[in-house]
Amino acid sequence: MSGHSKWHNIQGRKNAQDAKRGKIFQKLSREIYMAAKSGGPDPDGNPTLRMVIDKARSNNMPKDNIKRAIKKAEGGSEEHYDEITYEGYAPGGVAVFVEALTDNKNRTASDVRVAFTRNGGSLGATGSVAYMFDRKGYIVIDRSTTDADEDQVLLDVMDAGGDDLQTSDDAYEIYTDPKQLAAVRDALIKDGYKLADAELTMVPQNTTPVPADKKEQFEHLVDALEDSDDVQNVYTAAADED
User: Fold this and answer.
1) Residue 95 Rama label (left phi>0; alpha psi -120 to 50; beta)
2) What is the pTM of this model?
């Protein structure tokens, strides 16, 4: 592991996106719909669906929205979304990996291309930056929700099958093999931990500081990508802010 910590940045992004909550719910509904359509509507028998529902709940998505998305999949809707990834560089040479879920590839490709070109970035070919990231399971325990000390948490994480534990002042961040994420999550919940987050993510192998004179452009690029209705996740290799 590179030692790259995500939680502080995730919290910052979530706070900044409060005003965009309706758009976030729309994106989560797509994920729930696709998970239920491909693996069945029962979260107990569909780990992917359960993971997305947990993600929706952590974003305060109303239960009715979740139920509607699942019922839509159950009803045999012909609606379909393709999973597409885009790769490129932000200002300052920072690698960017974008995941989209779309029913119109041309529209999404145009949105992503415009976001990069208008904000000082460059869209690359498939594979141009993907090799710089590792797919990982990612779990967060807010330290204020547990009395366990770091040694106990580490022991429980290892027993659960986790790969790595990183500790900060406010959180325990756990990384797992992506195929073991559901099992590790369930084991930690069984041990009594309350999880603040549990999802699949892309972790950069190395990070790149964003030059001070490029920071505003960099933030505008990430915002523009996240504003696209079709973009589900934006991962960057930007170094954490101090």
Assistant:
1) beta
2) 0.86
